[in-house]
């Protein structure tokens, strides 16, 4: 008797493929902030139904990479100074709570098994900063991994899940509103950050993120909406 054939795992749907393609083009800057994304044009170009395109755009909307506004349709997300402030405040709330929980468990000196993922992410950030200092998408991606590793020290799946939902929006912010400091400075700031949060806890998180906000503020303050 021949062995029972196992069905191959299902591949990504057409909507997922289109979402992946558009996400890559948005985060690379090919589709700039404010670029309109019209269902009919996308469907024609990709050879897909408008329903499939609508599903793909809905995925990107949940990541806040695109927004839909009445009478303006769907467009690539752009940031005002208020958007930057709100995003950083949410990051701060999640990171500060993660650090509080970790310090509650381990005090001011965290064991190596807890800090190892952070150290690994830091090595990658330093490598990228050294080898690709002008590729801000790579730098931003490595930077995000460092912060995710810090949040993971708390061992709270719910906090990690909530923080992971900010990934795409944060990458878009950093790619389009490139901070005024260099990739090397980003790496140096984060190397000190791990030591600071163990000693100073939540206040170190606030200082770090406030510093980051100030680095992008000169550009974010000139966002699409001049009233913000």
Automatic annotation (TrEMBL):
Keywords: DNA-binding, Transcription, Transcription regulation. GO terms for molecular function: DNA binding; DNA-binding transcription factor activity. It comes from the Bacteria. PANTHER family: TRANSCRIPTIONAL REGULATOR, GNTR FAMILY, TRANSCRIPTIONAL REGULATORY PROTEIN. This is GntR family transcriptional regulator. The keyword Signal does not apply. Residues 12-79 form the HTH gntR-type domain. Pfam families: FCD, GntR. It comes from Acrocarpospora macrocephala. PROSITE patterns: HTH_GNTR. The keyword Repressor does not apply. SMART domains: HTH_GNTR.
